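I hope you will forgive my troubling you with a question about protein structure. The matter concerns a single protein, recorded as an amino acid sequence and a row of C-alpha cells. Please examine both parts with care and let me know of anything in them that strikes you as inconsistent. Thank you for your consideration; the sequence and its C-alpha cells are set out here:
***
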Amino acid sequence: MRTVLLITRREFLARVRGRAFVVSTAVILLILVGYSLFVTSIGPGGDSGTSTIAVAPETEAITPSLRLAADDQGRIVRVLPVDDAAAGRALVASGDADAALSGPPTRPRVDVDRSLGSGTGSVVTVATTLLAQQQLLPDPAAGDAAVAAAEPVVVAARPDDPAQGLRIGLGAFGAFLLFFSIQTYGAMVAQGVVEEKASRVVEIVLATVRPWQLLLGKVLGLGAVGLLQLVVLTAAGLAVAGTAGLLVAGAGITGTLVSVLVWYLLGFTLYATVYAALGSLVSRQEDTQSVLTPVSIVVLIGFIAGFNLVLSAPTSTALTVLSLIPPWTPLVMPARIALGGVPVWQVVLAFVLTAAFTALVLWVGGRIYARSVLRTGARVSWREAFTGR
C-alpha cells in the first residue's frame, strides 16, 4: 500500500497544482452562483388566475361574495356546491378543487391539500370580510367587530414542509456535482492511462510496481482531487445560501453531505475503474473518446433522468427504481436522501447492490487493465482484453 499511496500522492499533487484545477473550480462556482441568482430572480411559478372552490350547504351564503371578490381582483372563481364538508374535502384530495369551504360563512373552515395559494386565499379572505360587512351593516360597532373576526381557518391535509424546497435544491446540487466529478475526473484517469501508454512511461513504471497498484493509485489520487473540488464547491454553495438566508433548520444538511460523500466515493471508484480499463485499450488520445462515449452516455442518461425527476416528481416510482440501479445509484440516491422519506431498507439495498457491482467492476476492470496497458500500437480487442490472447 505504500507504493499505492506514493502513486496517489503524485496524481493528486500533479492535478491540484495545475492551473486547470483552479480555473475549472472558479468557473463552476460562477455558473452555480449565476444559476442560483437567476432562479431567485424568477421567483415562484405564476398563478393560473382561476380558482375552484367547493362550498358546503351551510356556507352557501358566501358564494356571491366570492364572485364579487374575484371580479375585483381580476380572477375567475368556479364554485362547486357539495352535499357536505366531507364531499368538499374529497374534491380537494382528488385535485378537482383548490379549496373546500364549510362552517360559518364569515369564519369558514378552508380545507386544502398542502397550502392555500395566494390568489385563492385573497379571494376567500376578502369574501368573508365583505359578507361580514353586509350582514351587520346597520350596526357600525358590531360590523367592525364582525369584520375583525371574519377570517378563514385554513386546514391543510398535507402541510407544506418549509425545508422541502431547500432539500430539493440540495439534492439537485449534489447530483450535479457528482455528475461533473465523475465525468471530469473519471475521464482524466483514462487520459492519464493513454498518455503513459503512448509515451511508454507505463513500461518503466510497471517494471517496479504491479498493474493493480498503478490502477488503484490513479483512481485514489484523482478521486481525492474530485473530492477536494466537491468540498470547495459545496462549502461555497452553503456559504452563498446562508448569506441569502436560504438555509432552513431541519433541512437535513448534515445527512445530505454525508450521503453525497459516501456515494461519491462509491460512484467515482466504479466509473474511474471503468474509464481506466477502457483507456488501456487504446494507445492514442484520438481514440480515447470513442471508447469512453458509451459509458459517458450511460452516466448522462442517469443524471438527466434523475435530475428531472427530483425537480418534477420527487416521490415517483420511476425515481425510486432509478435510484436502485447500480450504475445510476450514486447520482440519484443522494438526491432522494436529501428529499427525505426514503425507507432505510431501500438505502441499504442500494448500497449493497452498488458495492457488489463496484467490486465486480474492480475485478473485471483490473483484469482488462493488467492485460491491455502494455499493449501498444493497434487498439486492443475485447477478446484480447478478457482472455489475454
Notes: The two ends are 30 Å apart (CA to CA). Residues 42-46 have pLDDT under 50 and may be disordered. The first helix runs from residue 2 to 16. The chain has two domains: 2-41+163-387, 50-156.
